[in-house]
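hey so i finally got around to running both of the ones u sent me last week. sorry it took forever, my laptop kept dying halfway thru and i had to restart like 3 times lol. anyway pasting them below in the order u listed, first the sequence line then the structure token line for each. didnt double check formatting much so if smth looks off just lmk and ill redo it

first one:
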Amino acid sequence: MRDQPLPSSPGFWRSPVRGPRFTAVLGLVLLGGITVLFVTGLLSYAAYNPDLAAVNDKTPDKGLLGFYLFSWPTDPPWLYRLTQGVHVTLGITLIPVLLAKLWSVVPKLFALPPARSVAHALERLSLLLLVGGALFEFVTGVLNVQLDYLFPGSFYPLHFYGAWVFFAAFVTHVVLRLPEAMRQLRALRAQRAVRAGRAGGGEAPEAPAEEGVLVSPDPAAPTVSRRGAFGLVGGGSLLLLATTVGRSFDGPLRETAVLAPHGGKDPGSGPGAFQINKTAAYAGIRERDTSAEAWQLVLVGRRGTVRLSRTQLLRRPQHGSALPIACVEGWSTSDQWWQGVRLRDLAALVGHDDPPDVLVESLQQRGAFRRAALRANQVGDARSLLALAVNGVDLTPDHGYPARIIVPAAPGVLNTKWVARMTFGDL
């Protein structure tokens, strides 16, 4: 046992695939991909309008981290479908790249001494935060996509604050390592002709350079070339892409999303056969509470309170909008044809000719977004409806009967189902 090298010894890690250029290529892929993930994640956070009202803000202690927030637009109507679809699908696609990158640098985690200089100490610290942050963000993201809430607390603050910790470590690491990564890529291009001319086409182990800790002084016999390793990583990413991206589409493409909860065949048949997150039963919606005798919509505004039955709502001017549903888990539907009363018309009923913000409350008794706020620009959009029907038929209980909100470009949780009360005005 005494002769066995320790993990801190270069001889412990013997794969001939590891090397600074292998790591550099993976790092540059992650540099582009994670930047897109961070930007689309910030856009997803902004789409909730957390600065509008406390009911929308699941991160009240964010402080300066909310510096970029803005009024989320309603155009194009597929905006959230695009940004969140890219965020989740790209995140899943990058998992093999991330794992390969972590595997490629694992010798550095055990290298001694822990710090050779201040710059090296910062690099090691950023690496630890980077590895921990990456694993945390990808694991919580995948669990949320799979609807498995195994982590303590709410997904929203955990993923939001974790993203900032991870991105700070990521930026620090990039600043410290990018010059070396570029140097290794230039060296790779310079040696390509030499390698192509080697007898037998084999690949020689990389000579130790600045990152010689990644290169084994006694490499094992190769079982795969570096090119083959890149192929395995890329193939894994393409496989994950092919088996998840379909949940952002309807029809045959959705059936290819075999790894996604909202993949496969659409539920049921008929006009209401499109995806949902929560059923009426799961949300605790009782049939007696949505019956014609029991349910009334309560509108509160400048002129007081107005109560409307579903029959009275159906007698008001009806409008239609072709809008998708898109959720934070990355799944979405194509445009559905919604029919109902415009939100701005309901605001006018209680004295608001200029559409104001609105607080929407659901019959649902529990859940993070059973109460949600919409901005004035969302209320005022002619496509924003209190929907009573979809695709020519009454809403089903699972789609929000007797009435639900539908707003262009809004996250699914802001399209409140089983609406009971709407309060217009300053929130």
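and the second one:
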Amino acid sequence: MAPMCSGIPLTGVPFPRSEYERRRLNVLEAVANAGLDALVVTAHGHLRYLSGYDGSGGYFAPFPLIMVPGRSPTFVVRQYDEQAVRSYSCIEELVTYTHQQDLGKVCADVLRRYGLQ
């Protein structure tokens, strides 16, 4: 089993990957049961619960997590925050944006890539 975090305090993902998978699958099951095509998570507490990333810096720039049944979750993050998200999150697929006004287009592009309109 991989360690939950690195040797540096307050770095790394705060829970094991198996816990992340359990949480992700529970949410995706609820999404499917509700008849939804996708879930776009934006609340910081929910993002931390589902990814391990607490959103430092995200109060100034949104970082939605897009979850689609049968697909890997995708974080849409500011390019500036990409390294932090990779360091503190279980989410492997990241798509970046540079300017906040581009966020909606980038999220729509991710959803289209997953076959949604």
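quick thing i noticed on the 2nd:
Confidence is low (pLDDT under 50) at residues 1-9.
anyway thats it, ttyl
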